[in-house]
Amino acid sequence: MMSVYLQGNSWAHRLPAGLKLLAIAVASLLLLQYTSFRVLLPALAAVLLCYASLGRDGLAQLKLLRAMSLLLAALLALHWISGSLLEGVTIILRLAIMILAANFVSVTTRMDDMLNAVQPLFKPLEIFGFSPRKPALGVALVLRFAPYMLVVFAQLREAWQARTGTRNSWRLLAPFAIQSLSMSDHVAEALKARGGSQGLSR
Amino acid sequence: MAFWPKIRKPSAEQRVCNPDASPYAVFDRVGLNAGGTPILEDLTLQLVEDRIGIIGLNGSGKSSFVRLLNGLRAPTSGNLTLFEAPSDKAELELPRHVGFVFQNPDHQAIFPTVEEEIAFGLTQLGAGKEESRSRARAFLALHGCEGLAGKPITELSGGQKQLICILAVLVMEPRLLVLDEPMSSLDALTTARIRRKILSLPQKIVLVSHDLGQFDGFDRLLWLEDGRLRMDGAPDAVRTAFQEDVLTRKGLDVEIAEL
Amino acid sequence: MLPKRSRRAAGRKACQDDRKEAGDDWLSAENWAIPPTDDDFHPSTDPFGPWVSGRPVVLEKKVEFIMADRSLVHVAFYAALIAALGLVPPVAIAFLGGVPITAQTLGVMLAGVMLGPIRGALAVLLFLFLVALGLPFLSGGRGGLGVFMGPSVGFLIGWPVGALVAGWIMQSTRELNILLAAAISAAVGGILVVYAIGIPCVAIMAGLSLPKAALGSAVFVPGDLLKVALTAIIVQTVARGLPGAVLSRS
Questions:
Q1: Which fold has domain B25-112+152-250?
Q2: Which residues numbered 121-180 in A keep a CB inside 8 Å of some CB on C?
Q3: How far apart (Å, rounded) are the C-alpha atoms in residues C11 and A164?
Q4: ipTM of this complex prediction, to 2 decimal places
C-alpha cells in the first residue's frame, strides 16, 4: 500500500500508535513556547537522531524537508526583507523540527494502527447518529476509488487521442468527472446490496 | 419434475412448480414506476426453483426485476413477499438472505484489497475485525484464491475480479444469489469457469443474461418484455420462442436506432 | 508520396477538419456520458427516488442528508478526486509569473460546488484525514502528520471551510445560471475563504506580518482564478450530462 510508512521493526515501530500521537502533540505544544537556539538545536539533534536510529532508510526520509525547502526559503526571504533575519531563522528551524518530528510518527506507524488509535475519537459522534464505522469505510473507499480514477482517465485520454490526434486536454476533465461519478453511483448501490454502512448485526 | 407446456402465456393466477417447497418470492400484481414511467407492470408469479434464468431485450425491465429481489428497489404497486415476509419490512434484512452480483465488477468492489473486500461481508454480519480477516483468508483458500488475498482489486484480471465479487457475496452465506449479467465482459473460457462455479453452489440462483446458452441445466426461464412477463417455462421452450420472435418480428435489417 | 513531416501535418489537418465539420458538438457532455450499462437502471436520475426503499421519500431525504450510504460514497468519491488531482504534475504558466499551479484546489472547489455544504466539507475532511494517516496524497507526494506542522497548514484548514461556503452559496443560488453560480461559489469559497484562513495562519506560524504573508500568498491567486473557471465549466458540463450528480442542486 502506498504510504509514507516505512516498513520496519525498530523501537519506534513497536511503540503504540496512540502514545506516539500523544507525544507528538505534547512536544509540539512545548516547542511553540521557545525560540532560543539553546532549546531548538538540541531538539533538532534529537529528531535527527530518531531518524538515524532507523538506519539508512530512515535518513532517506529527510527528503521530506526538500519538498518543503522552497516554501521555507520563501518565508526566510520575506523575513530577510523585513529585517528580522535572525528571528526568521529560529522560526523556520522550529517549523522544520515540528515537521520532521510529526513525520517521524507517520513513518513509523502503520496506517491501520493509526486508524485504530483515532477510532475512539469518533465515538462521541454516535449521539448524533453517526456510525463510528464510517470513517474507516470512507478511508477504504477513497483508497479504492483513487487508482480507479487514474484508469478511467487513461482510457478517456486514449479515446481522445484516437479521435483528435492530440494528447492531453483540459476538456477531458468534464467527461472524466461524468464517467467516474456514475461509477460512484454503482458502488453506492453495491454497498446497499450488501447491507449498507450500518451493517446487519443490529 | 413439473410439466411445462410448450408456450405458456402469463396469466394472473399464481404458479407453483413444486407444491412441497415454499416459494421464496411471491409477486402479487407487482408494478414499478420510476419518475412516472412504468418499468414493471402487473407481475404475478412465484419463484421457488433452484435455478431460474431471466431473458429479455434491452429495456425490458430485467435489471429492475432482479433489484426487487434484493430490496434495492421497492415495488410501487402490488405486494411482494420475500422469504415469507413483506419486502418492505426492515427487519427482514434482505442483504443477509439475497446476495447480488452486478454486471461490472469495477462497480461492485468497495474495498482496495481482495481480503478487505471479502472480510467486509463478515463484519457486516457482526464479526470483529481480526476474526473477519482470518475467516476471509480461510474462505479464499477454500475457493482456491489464497494467492489473491493481499492483492489490490484494480490489479486483478476481469475474470478474477468477477470471481472475487461473487465470493464477497457468498461469504455472507445468502439463501439466494442474484446475478445481473455477470458474464457480459468475460471471455468464453472464463465464462465457462464462472458458470460452473455458480451451478455448483447450494444457493438458489437467479441469473440474468443475454447469452441464451447460459441457461443449460436451468429449471425455469422467464422472458420479460416491456415490463411484463411474456413467457414463463422450461428453458428450451422459452429460448426457442424468444429466438424466433426476436428475429422474425423485429427483423435484422432495421436500423438499430429505430428499434 | 509526401515527405514524412508534411504527411503528418496533412493528417493533423484532416483531423482538425473533421473536428470542425462535427462542429465540436461531439465534445458536448451528452456525447461523452456513458450509456447506462444496465438496460433500465439509472440511479443518478432519481437521486432519492424509490431506490432508497419503500419508506416515504420525503423522510428519507432528510435522513439521507449526511448519513446514507450514497452520501458516504459520494464523499469518498470527491476525497479520492482531490487525491487524484494531487498527482497531476504542477503546471507553470509563464504569463502568470511562472508560479507552479497544482490541480488539488480544483478538487476542493468541485467538492463544495457539486456536493453542497455538509458533504463537500466532509469530503475535504476525509481527504485530510487520509493525508494525516500517512498517505502521500498532497500535491508533490507529501503526506503524514508533518504537513500539518508546516506553515501552510492554514490553507489546509481553510479547504473544508471553503468547500462548506462554496456549497452553501451554490445551494442558495438555485435560480442563478449554473455556470455563474458555480464560478461565484468557487471564487468565494475556494479563494476568499481559504485565503482568509490561510494567510493569518502563515503569519502566525512563520512570525510574519499580515501584509507580508498576504504578499507571499498572492502569487497563487491567478492560478486559483483559472481553477475557478475550470470548476464552473466542469459543473456546467456535468449538469448537462448527468444532472442528478450535481447534488448541491438536487
A1: Rossmann fold (3.40.50)
A2: 129-130, 134-135, 137-139, 141-146, 149-150, 153, 164-165, 170-171, 173-175, 177-180
A3: 10
A4: 0.81
